[in-house]
Design brief:
The chain is of the alpha+beta class. It has a single domain, classed as Jelly Rolls (Sandwich), CATH 2.60.120. It is 18% helix and 36% strand. The protein has helices spanning 15-31, 58-61, 148-153, 170-173, and strands at 43-45, 50-55, 72-79, 82-88, 93-98, 100-105, 108-113, 117-119, 127-133, 140-147, 159-162. The strands form two sheets. Strands 1-2-3-10-5-8 form a six-stranded antiparallel beta sheet. Strand 6 and strand 7 form a beta hairpin. The longest helix is centred in the N-terminal third of the chain and has 17 residues, at 15-31. The radius of gyration is 21 Å and the shape is globular.
Length: 177
């Protein structure tokens, strides 16, 4: 039997790193960007719809945020006919900006119009959903607010069930969200 020599290593003390990180987070929360300009956020075709991301948690992007808040995923979707269909944990808030349509949530239809609030429930196994525009001649738009912490604490898994009809697979290779 071969003998192995063990090398004793010193345990890493990352206490100072934690303090520095917390200090930087606190400083960003006081001095970070307060207004996010829509013109600075490009529209991107995703598997779900045409999307404009205003905020994306740094833990997903790996980038240091410039905003006073870091833990939110906030985006607008432009629904011309219908979105893709996917399943993930609920707990998100969708405010209808313009248009009329409906969302299919776990097989049940929920009609909405501009000014309405759509709430996706928290459920074991997540919520399957797809969004539809009522009219062919004008898009429906809504904005979603998702807490990054709630998504993670809920052990959410994102499962794409159907892609948006205009989505092209090449977008995945470019790393488009």
């Amino acid at each position: 039997m071969a003998t192995r020599e063990r090398e004793r290593t010193r345990e890493r003390d990352n206490y100072e790193e934690i303090i520095a990180h917390q200090r930087a987070e606190r400083e960003r929360s006081f001095t970070g960007q307060v207004v996010i300009r829509g013109e600075d956020c490009p529209w991107v075709m995703s598997r779900q719809a045409l999307v404009k991301h205003y905020m994306w948690p740094s833990r997903y992007s790996g980038e240091t945020p410039e905003t006073v808040l870091d833990d939110w995923n906030i985006f607008v979707q432009d629904i011309k006919v219908h979105s893709g269909k996917h399943r993930h944990q609920g707990g998100l808030v969708i405010y209808i900006i313009e248009g009329e349509g409906w969302s299919e949530v776990d097989g049940e239809r929920h009609d909405w119009e501009a000014g309405d609030l759509l709430l996706l429930p928290l459920k074991p196994g997540g919520v399957e959903h797809k969004h539809y525009n009522r009219y062919d001649d004008k898009p429906a738009k809504w904005i979603a607010f998702i807490s990054g912490a709630l998504f993670e604490w809920g052990a959410s898994e994102m499962v794409q069930l159907e892609n948006h009809p205009d989505f092209k697979a090449k977008n995945i290779a470019r790393g488009t969200r």
